[in-house]
Amino acid sequence: MVKVVIVNGMPESGKTTFQEICVKKLTEHNWNTVIKSSVEWVKDIATYCGWNGEKTDKNRKFLSDLKKVLTDWDDAVLKNLASAIDYYHYTSLDYVVFIDIREASEIEKAKKAFNAISVIVRRPQVECNVYNNSSDMYVFEANYDFTVWNDSNIENLEVESYNFIKDAILDNNNNIYIPKEN
C-alpha cells in the first residue's frame, strides 16, 4: 500500500524540514517513507546541460522552464514520478511517499494519478518575496487539502507536522489511511 502526499510552499517556507519531521515520526512508528521531488529528474537533465547546482534566480527560472517544456512535451515529469511510485507498489512494504510539486496544474494531475493528498507549508515571513519563475509565482493557485503553518519556531512546526500525520495519514488504529478512489 502506498500513500502519496504532495507538498508545496514558497521557497524557504520549511517544506523540507516539515517532510523530515514527518519522516522521522513515521519511521519511529515503523512506517517506510520516501521523499521525492518532481524536479529531481529535471535537475539531472539540467546538470547534463551544464547547470552547476546553484539556486540563483536565473537558475530557478531555467529549472522551471525546463520542467514546463518536459511537461508540455509529453507529461514526462509526471510519467517519471509514476514509474518511481510504481516501484513502491510492487514491494511488499507499505510506504508514505512525499513529493514536492510546485505547479498548481501538476498538483491536480498528480492528486488524481496517485490518489494523493496535498499540503501547503505556509511561512508568512517568506511569502512577500518576489520570484521570476512560474513555479514560485503561483504557489497559492492550487487547492490544498491541508495547510501546515511554519510561523513560529521548530517546536511549533513539529506540533503542526505531528497533527498533520494524525489528521491526514494515519487512521484511528495508527495504520496508513488510504481513501477509496473516486
Could you explain the architecture of this structure?
With 182 residues, the protein is α/β, with parallel strands linked by helices. It is built from 7 helices and 5 strands. Strands 2-3-1-4-5 form a 5-stranded parallel sheet, with helices on both faces. The radius of gyration is 16 Å and the shape is globular.
Distinct helical segment count? 7
* Percent range for β-strand residues: 15-25%
Structural class: alpha/beta
Strand order of the largest sheet: 2-3-1-4-5
Largest sheet: 5 strands, parallel
Oligomer: single chain
Order of helices and strands: EHEHHHEHEHEH
Regions with little confidence, pLDDT below 50 for 5+ residues:
none
Per DSSP E runs of 2 or more residues, the count of β-strands stands at 5
Query: Quick check: average pLDDT?
Result: 90
Q: What separation lies between the terminal Cα atoms?
A: 17 Å
> Helical amount among residues, as a percent range?
40-55%
**What radius of gyration results from the CA coordinates?**
16 Å
List the helices and strands and how they pair.
Elements: E1 2-9, H1 15-28, E2 32-37, H2 40-48, H3 57-74, H4 76-89, E3 95-100, H5 104-114, E4 117-122, H6 134-137, E5 146-149, H7 154-169
Parallel strand pairs: 1-3, 1-4, 2-3, 4-5
Give the key terms.
alpha/beta, 5-stranded parallel beta sheet
Task: Offer a quick outline of the entry.
The chain is α/β, with parallel strands linked by helices. The chain contains seven helices and five strands.
